[in-house]
Amino acid sequence: MRNRYLDLLRFLAIVRVVVYHVTGWASLTLVFPAMSVMFALAGSLMAASLHRWGPGAVLRRIRRLLPSLWVLAAVFVPAMLLTGLPLSPKVLLWLFPVADPPANDWGALALSVIWYLRDYLWFVLASPIALWLFRRAPLPTLLAPYALLLALQAGLWPAAPTAARDFGLYFGAWLLGFAHQAGMLRRLANRVLVPLALALALAGGTWIVTHPGPRGYDLNDNPLANALWSAAFVLVLLGRGPATTAWVDRSAVFSRVVTVFNRRALTVYLWHMPFVVALTPLVDVVGWTHQDPVGLAVRVALVFVLVGLVTAAVGWVEDVAARRPPELVPGGRRPARPRAADVVPSSPAPAGAGHAGAPVVAARPDVGRAGVPRQRSAPELETVEISAG
User: What is the pTM of this model?
Assistant: First the structure.
Protein backbone atom coordinates (compact mmCIF):
# COMPACT_ATOMS: atom_id res chain seq x y z
CA MET A 1 0.00 0.00 0.00
CA ARG A 2 1.26 3.45 -0.84
CA ASN A 3 2.23 5.68 2.07
CA ARG A 4 0.01 8.73 1.72
CA TYR A 5 2.04 10.65 4.28
CA LEU A 6 5.06 10.47 1.98
CA ASP A 7 2.79 11.45 -0.91
CA LEU A 8 1.64 14.47 1.10
CA LEU A 9 5.23 15.51 1.85
CA ARG A 10 6.18 15.24 -1.82
CA PHE A 11 3.12 17.27 -2.84
CA LEU A 12 3.97 20.02 -0.34
CA ALA A 13 7.62 20.02 -1.45
CA ILE A 14 6.77 20.43 -5.14
CA VAL A 15 4.26 23.21 -4.47
CA ARG A 16 6.80 24.97 -2.24
CA VAL A 17 9.48 24.77 -4.94
CA VAL A 18 7.20 26.30 -7.57
CA VAL A 19 5.99 29.09 -5.26
CA TYR A 20 9.57 29.86 -4.22
CA HIS A 21 10.74 30.16 -7.82
CA VAL A 22 7.88 32.52 -8.63
CA THR A 23 8.11 34.71 -5.54
CA GLY A 24 11.79 34.43 -4.59
CA TRP A 25 10.83 34.50 -0.91
CA ALA A 26 13.93 33.31 0.98
CA SER A 27 11.86 32.55 4.07
CA LEU A 28 10.22 29.62 2.25
CA THR A 29 13.54 27.74 2.27
CA LEU A 30 13.58 27.94 6.06
CA VAL A 31 9.89 27.17 6.55
CA PHE A 32 10.14 24.01 4.46
CA PRO A 33 13.50 22.85 3.00
CA ALA A 34 11.80 21.15 0.07
CA MET A 35 14.80 19.89 -1.91
CA SER A 36 16.28 17.94 0.99
CA VAL A 37 12.87 16.51 1.79
CA MET A 38 12.50 15.38 -1.83
CA PHE A 39 15.94 13.75 -1.78
CA ALA A 40 15.14 12.01 1.53
CA LEU A 41 11.89 10.63 0.12
CA ALA A 42 13.71 9.49 -3.03
CA GLY A 43 16.41 7.82 -0.92
CA SER A 44 13.79 5.91 1.04
CA LEU A 45 12.15 4.69 -2.17
CA MET A 46 15.53 3.79 -3.67
CA ALA A 47 16.46 1.71 -0.63
CA ALA A 48 13.12 -0.11 -0.86
CA SER A 49 13.69 -0.78 -4.56
CA LEU A 50 17.20 -2.12 -3.92
CA HIS A 51 15.85 -4.36 -1.19
CA ARG A 52 13.28 -5.75 -3.60
CA TRP A 53 15.13 -5.82 -6.92
CA GLY A 54 18.81 -5.69 -6.04
CA PRO A 55 21.19 -3.78 -8.34
CA GLY A 56 18.57 -4.03 -11.10
CA ALA A 57 16.72 -1.26 -9.25
CA VAL A 58 19.26 1.21 -10.66
CA LEU A 59 18.18 0.53 -14.23
CA ARG A 60 14.52 0.58 -13.23
CA ARG A 61 14.92 3.98 -11.62
CA ILE A 62 16.88 5.40 -14.56
CA ARG A 63 14.21 4.10 -16.91
CA ARG A 64 11.62 6.09 -14.97
CA LEU A 65 13.78 9.19 -14.65
CA LEU A 66 14.98 9.96 -18.17
CA PRO A 67 11.96 9.86 -20.55
CA SER A 68 10.44 13.02 -19.08
CA LEU A 69 13.78 14.77 -19.53
CA TRP A 70 13.94 13.62 -23.15
CA VAL A 71 10.53 15.16 -23.82
CA LEU A 72 11.74 18.46 -22.40
CA ALA A 73 14.97 18.24 -24.41
CA ALA A 74 13.05 17.49 -27.61
CA VAL A 75 11.42 20.92 -27.28
CA PHE A 76 14.19 23.07 -25.88
CA VAL A 77 17.41 21.69 -27.36
CA PRO A 78 16.41 22.43 -30.98
CA ALA A 79 15.21 25.88 -29.88
CA MET A 80 18.58 26.57 -28.22
CA LEU A 81 20.51 25.27 -31.21
CA LEU A 82 18.58 27.69 -33.42
CA THR A 83 19.35 30.59 -31.07
CA GLY A 84 23.09 30.26 -30.64
CA LEU A 85 23.88 27.04 -28.77
CA PRO A 86 26.92 25.42 -30.44
CA LEU A 87 26.40 21.87 -31.63
CA SER A 88 28.96 19.70 -29.84
CA PRO A 89 29.18 16.22 -28.32
CA LYS A 90 28.22 17.76 -24.96
CA VAL A 91 24.66 18.08 -26.28
CA LEU A 92 24.41 14.32 -25.65
CA LEU A 93 24.35 15.12 -21.94
CA TRP A 94 20.68 15.96 -22.49
CA LEU A 95 20.21 12.21 -22.92
CA PHE A 96 22.11 11.20 -19.77
CA PRO A 97 22.94 14.22 -17.57
CA VAL A 98 25.83 13.02 -15.44
CA ALA A 99 27.08 16.62 -15.83
CA ASP A 100 25.29 19.87 -16.59
CA PRO A 101 23.98 19.73 -20.17
CA PRO A 102 24.95 22.73 -22.33
CA ALA A 103 22.53 25.63 -22.70
CA ASN A 104 22.56 29.10 -24.21
CA ASP A 105 21.87 32.30 -22.29
CA TRP A 106 18.08 32.05 -21.99
CA GLY A 107 18.09 28.25 -21.75
CA ALA A 108 20.51 28.25 -18.83
CA LEU A 109 17.93 30.08 -16.71
CA ALA A 110 14.78 28.42 -18.01
CA LEU A 111 16.28 24.94 -17.61
CA SER A 112 18.29 25.59 -14.46
CA VAL A 113 16.37 22.93 -12.51
CA ILE A 114 18.22 20.22 -14.44
CA TRP A 115 20.76 20.15 -11.61
CA TYR A 116 18.21 18.12 -9.62
CA LEU A 117 18.20 15.35 -12.23
CA ARG A 118 21.98 15.43 -12.39
CA ASP A 119 22.28 14.91 -8.65
CA TYR A 120 19.43 12.40 -8.59
CA LEU A 121 21.16 10.36 -11.30
CA TRP A 122 24.46 10.34 -9.41
CA PHE A 123 22.72 9.34 -6.18
CA VAL A 124 20.91 6.49 -7.91
CA LEU A 125 24.17 5.21 -9.41
CA ALA A 126 25.89 5.40 -6.01
CA SER A 127 23.04 3.81 -4.06
CA PRO A 128 23.97 0.10 -4.34
CA ILE A 129 27.40 0.73 -2.81
CA ALA A 130 26.05 3.31 -0.36
CA LEU A 131 23.34 0.94 0.86
CA TRP A 132 25.89 -1.87 1.26
CA LEU A 133 28.03 0.44 3.40
CA PHE A 134 25.03 1.79 5.28
CA ARG A 135 23.87 -1.67 6.32
CA ARG A 136 27.32 -2.47 7.73
CA ALA A 137 28.23 0.89 9.27
CA PRO A 138 25.11 3.10 9.42
CA LEU A 139 26.42 6.02 11.45
CA PRO A 140 29.82 6.51 9.71
CA THR A 141 28.13 6.22 6.31
CA LEU A 142 25.47 8.74 7.29
CA LEU A 143 28.02 11.20 8.64
CA ALA A 144 30.33 10.97 5.62
CA PRO A 145 28.46 13.50 3.40
CA TYR A 146 28.32 16.04 6.23
CA ALA A 147 32.05 15.55 6.89
CA LEU A 148 32.70 16.14 3.20
CA LEU A 149 30.64 19.33 3.32
CA LEU A 150 32.57 20.57 6.36
CA ALA A 151 35.85 19.89 4.53
CA LEU A 152 34.65 21.86 1.52
CA GLN A 153 33.43 24.69 3.74
CA ALA A 154 36.84 24.82 5.43
CA GLY A 155 38.56 25.09 2.04
CA LEU A 156 40.36 21.74 2.33
CA TRP A 157 39.37 20.84 -1.23
CA PRO A 158 39.29 24.12 -3.17
CA ALA A 159 39.05 22.45 -6.60
CA ALA A 160 36.22 20.11 -5.66
CA PRO A 161 33.93 19.22 -8.60
CA THR A 162 30.24 20.03 -8.55
CA ALA A 163 29.37 16.39 -7.89
CA ALA A 164 31.43 16.37 -4.67
CA ARG A 165 29.78 19.57 -3.45
CA ASP A 166 26.30 18.22 -4.11
CA PHE A 167 27.10 14.88 -2.48
CA GLY A 168 28.07 16.81 0.62
CA LEU A 169 24.94 18.94 0.48
CA TYR A 170 22.17 16.49 -0.42
CA PHE A 171 23.42 12.91 -0.15
CA GLY A 172 23.06 13.11 3.61
CA ALA A 173 19.32 13.62 3.13
CA TRP A 174 19.29 10.68 0.69
CA LEU A 175 20.94 8.50 3.34
CA LEU A 176 18.43 9.67 5.94
CA GLY A 177 15.90 8.21 3.51
CA PHE A 178 17.80 4.90 3.80
CA ALA A 179 17.48 5.16 7.59
CA HIS A 180 13.76 5.86 7.26
CA GLN A 181 13.22 2.84 5.02
CA ALA A 182 15.10 0.64 7.50
CA GLY A 183 12.89 1.90 10.36
CA MET A 184 15.84 3.42 12.22
CA LEU A 185 14.35 6.91 12.50
CA ARG A 186 11.09 5.58 13.86
CA ARG A 187 12.93 3.52 16.46
CA LEU A 188 14.95 6.48 17.75
CA ALA A 189 13.73 7.40 21.21
CA ASN A 190 12.43 10.92 21.71
CA ARG A 191 15.24 11.58 24.19
CA VAL A 192 17.66 11.09 21.27
CA LEU A 193 15.76 12.37 18.24
CA VAL A 194 14.36 15.60 19.71
CA PRO A 195 17.66 16.96 21.14
CA LEU A 196 19.50 15.92 17.97
CA ALA A 197 16.99 17.70 15.73
CA LEU A 198 17.10 20.80 17.94
CA ALA A 199 20.90 20.83 17.92
CA LEU A 200 21.04 20.52 14.13
CA ALA A 201 18.43 23.26 13.68
CA LEU A 202 20.27 25.53 16.12
CA ALA A 203 23.61 24.96 14.38
CA GLY A 204 22.13 25.51 10.92
CA GLY A 205 20.13 28.54 12.01
CA THR A 206 23.10 30.11 13.75
CA TRP A 207 25.31 29.57 10.72
CA ILE A 208 22.92 31.20 8.26
CA VAL A 209 22.22 34.13 10.57
CA THR A 210 25.93 34.78 10.96
CA HIS A 211 26.72 34.04 7.29
CA PRO A 212 23.86 35.50 5.21
CA GLY A 213 24.11 35.15 1.46
CA PRO A 214 23.36 37.59 -1.35
CA ARG A 215 19.64 36.92 -0.94
CA GLY A 216 19.66 37.16 2.82
CA TYR A 217 18.65 34.10 4.81
CA ASP A 218 18.16 31.86 1.79
CA LEU A 219 19.34 28.29 2.41
CA ASN A 220 20.20 27.89 -1.26
CA ASP A 221 23.09 30.32 -0.79
CA ASN A 222 24.52 28.54 2.26
CA PRO A 223 25.26 24.81 1.79
CA LEU A 224 26.34 24.10 5.38
CA ALA A 225 23.33 25.80 6.94
CA ASN A 226 21.13 24.11 4.34
CA ALA A 227 22.41 20.63 5.18
CA LEU A 228 22.12 21.06 8.96
CA TRP A 229 18.74 22.81 8.99
CA SER A 230 17.33 20.31 6.48
CA ALA A 231 18.61 17.31 8.42
CA ALA A 232 16.67 18.53 11.46
CA PHE A 233 13.48 18.76 9.38
CA VAL A 234 13.95 15.34 7.81
CA LEU A 235 14.58 13.71 11.19
CA VAL A 236 11.30 15.06 12.54
CA LEU A 237 9.19 14.65 9.38
CA LEU A 238 10.27 11.06 8.74
CA GLY A 239 11.12 9.98 12.26
CA ARG A 240 7.91 11.22 13.83
CA GLY A 241 5.50 11.19 10.93
CA PRO A 242 1.93 10.09 11.69
CA ALA A 243 1.13 6.40 11.42
CA THR A 244 -1.84 7.20 9.21
CA THR A 245 -3.04 10.13 7.12
CA ALA A 246 -6.50 8.90 6.24
CA TRP A 247 -7.72 12.51 6.22
CA VAL A 248 -5.86 13.06 2.94
CA ASP A 249 -8.37 10.82 1.18
CA ARG A 250 -11.49 12.10 2.94
CA SER A 251 -11.76 14.85 0.36
CA ALA A 252 -11.94 13.34 -3.12
CA VAL A 253 -10.68 16.56 -4.68
CA PHE A 254 -7.66 16.98 -2.40
CA SER A 255 -6.83 13.28 -2.65
CA ARG A 256 -6.87 13.53 -6.44
CA VAL A 257 -4.64 16.62 -6.39
CA VAL A 258 -2.09 14.87 -4.17
CA THR A 259 -2.15 11.84 -6.45
CA VAL A 260 -1.72 13.94 -9.60
CA PHE A 261 1.26 15.82 -8.19
CA ASN A 262 2.91 12.55 -7.16
CA ARG A 263 2.28 10.75 -10.44
CA ARG A 264 3.45 13.83 -12.38
CA ALA A 265 6.15 15.07 -9.99
CA LEU A 266 8.94 15.05 -12.56
CA THR A 267 6.89 16.73 -15.26
CA VAL A 268 5.76 19.52 -12.94
CA TYR A 269 9.30 20.05 -11.68
CA LEU A 270 10.93 20.14 -15.11
CA TRP A 271 8.41 22.39 -16.81
CA HIS A 272 7.58 24.98 -14.16
CA MET A 273 10.81 26.99 -14.44
CA PRO A 274 10.46 27.86 -18.17
CA PHE A 275 7.06 29.34 -17.39
CA VAL A 276 8.41 31.24 -14.37
CA VAL A 277 11.08 32.79 -16.60
CA ALA A 278 8.63 33.53 -19.42
CA LEU A 279 6.08 35.23 -17.16
CA THR A 280 8.56 37.38 -15.21
CA PRO A 281 8.73 40.18 -17.85
CA LEU A 282 4.94 40.48 -17.72
CA VAL A 283 5.27 41.96 -14.24
CA ASP A 284 6.88 45.06 -15.69
CA VAL A 285 4.55 45.18 -18.70
CA VAL A 286 1.40 45.43 -16.59
CA GLY A 287 2.99 47.74 -14.03
CA TRP A 288 3.18 45.41 -11.04
CA THR A 289 6.24 45.44 -8.81
CA HIS A 290 8.02 42.19 -8.11
CA GLN A 291 6.65 42.19 -4.57
CA ASP A 292 3.10 43.23 -5.45
CA PRO A 293 0.82 40.63 -3.76
CA VAL A 294 -1.71 40.65 -6.59
CA GLY A 295 0.97 40.31 -9.24
CA LEU A 296 2.66 37.47 -7.41
CA ALA A 297 -0.63 35.66 -6.87
CA VAL A 298 -1.49 35.98 -10.56
CA ARG A 299 1.94 34.73 -11.59
CA VAL A 300 1.74 31.74 -9.24
CA ALA A 301 -1.72 30.86 -10.57
CA LEU A 302 -0.62 31.26 -14.20
CA VAL A 303 2.44 29.07 -13.69
CA PHE A 304 0.33 26.28 -12.20
CA VAL A 305 -2.25 26.59 -14.98
CA LEU A 306 0.39 26.46 -17.72
CA VAL A 307 2.21 23.57 -16.04
CA GLY A 308 -1.14 21.81 -15.75
CA LEU A 309 -1.72 22.15 -19.49
CA VAL A 310 1.74 20.79 -20.33
CA THR A 311 1.31 18.01 -17.78
CA ALA A 312 -1.95 16.98 -19.42
CA ALA A 313 -0.19 16.96 -22.80
CA VAL A 314 3.03 15.08 -21.96
CA GLY A 315 2.69 13.83 -18.39
CA TRP A 316 1.54 10.42 -19.59
CA VAL A 317 5.21 9.79 -20.43
CA GLU A 318 5.73 9.17 -16.72
CA ASP A 319 3.08 6.44 -16.87
CA VAL A 320 4.78 4.80 -19.85
CA ALA A 321 8.17 5.02 -18.13
CA ALA A 322 6.68 3.36 -15.04
CA ARG A 323 4.90 0.76 -17.20
CA ARG A 324 1.50 1.91 -16.05
CA PRO A 325 -1.50 2.42 -18.33
CA PRO A 326 -1.26 6.04 -19.59
CA GLU A 327 -3.75 8.43 -17.99
CA LEU A 328 -4.60 11.99 -18.90
CA VAL A 329 -5.31 12.87 -15.28
CA PRO A 330 -3.99 10.26 -12.82
CA GLY A 331 -5.95 8.92 -9.90
CA GLY A 332 -9.25 8.14 -11.60
CA ARG A 333 -11.34 5.26 -10.42
CA ARG A 334 -10.52 1.89 -11.88
CA PRO A 335 -13.20 -0.69 -12.68
CA ALA A 336 -14.33 -2.26 -9.43
CA ARG A 337 -13.61 -5.91 -8.85
CA PRO A 338 -16.70 -8.12 -9.05
CA ARG A 339 -18.27 -8.81 -5.69
CA ALA A 340 -18.47 -12.36 -4.43
CA ALA A 341 -22.24 -12.31 -4.90
CA ASP A 342 -21.79 -11.46 -8.57
CA VAL A 343 -19.38 -14.35 -9.27
CA VAL A 344 -20.98 -17.19 -11.18
CA PRO A 345 -20.42 -20.44 -9.23
CA SER A 346 -17.96 -22.77 -10.87
CA SER A 347 -19.07 -26.16 -12.09
CA PRO A 348 -18.07 -29.17 -10.02
CA ALA A 349 -14.50 -30.26 -10.51
CA PRO A 350 -13.88 -33.39 -12.49
CA ALA A 351 -13.20 -36.56 -10.58
CA GLY A 352 -9.67 -36.72 -9.27
CA ALA A 353 -9.30 -32.95 -8.82
CA GLY A 354 -8.99 -32.27 -5.12
CA HIS A 355 -11.72 -34.09 -3.22
CA ALA A 356 -13.72 -36.13 -5.68
CA GLY A 357 -16.78 -34.27 -6.76
CA ALA A 358 -16.04 -31.27 -4.51
CA PRO A 359 -17.00 -27.94 -6.13
CA VAL A 360 -14.24 -25.48 -6.92
CA VAL A 361 -14.85 -22.31 -4.91
CA ALA A 362 -13.61 -19.08 -6.45
CA ALA A 363 -11.25 -17.19 -4.16
CA ARG A 364 -12.77 -14.07 -2.66
CA PRO A 365 -10.21 -11.26 -2.69
CA ASP A 366 -11.97 -9.37 0.08
CA VAL A 367 -12.17 -12.19 2.63
CA GLY A 368 -9.33 -13.66 4.67
CA ARG A 369 -8.84 -17.26 5.62
CA ALA A 370 -10.93 -16.92 8.73
CA GLY A 371 -13.74 -15.27 6.83
CA VAL A 372 -12.83 -11.84 8.18
CA PRO A 373 -13.17 -9.07 5.56
CA ARG A 374 -9.88 -7.45 4.62
CA GLN A 375 -9.63 -3.69 4.41
CA ARG A 376 -9.37 -2.66 0.78
CA SER A 377 -6.97 0.01 -0.24
CA ALA A 378 -7.93 2.79 -2.60
CA PRO A 379 -6.78 2.12 -6.17
CA GLU A 380 -4.46 5.10 -6.16
CA LEU A 381 -2.61 3.83 -3.10
CA GLU A 382 -0.81 0.97 -4.82
CA THR A 383 2.95 1.02 -4.48
CA VAL A 384 4.71 3.02 -7.14
CA GLU A 385 8.25 4.26 -7.46
CA ILE A 386 8.50 7.81 -8.66
CA SER A 387 11.23 10.28 -8.98
CA ALA A 388 10.43 13.61 -7.45
CA GLY A 389 11.55 15.86 -6.68
Answer: 0.84
